[in-house]
Amino acid sequence: MKARHILAGSILTAVASSSFAVTLASSTFDASTEGWKAVNGASHFERLLDGGDPGGFIQAKDVNGETLWFFAAPSAYLGDKSAAYGGSLSFALKSDSTSPPLATTYADIHLLGANGVRLVFTGDAVPTGGWTSYTVALVADGSWKVDSVNGPNATAADFAGVLANLETLRIRGDYKQAVETTGLDSVVLTAAVPEPATAAMALAGLALLAGIARRRQA
Question: What is the pTM of this model?
Answer without folding.
Answer: 0.82
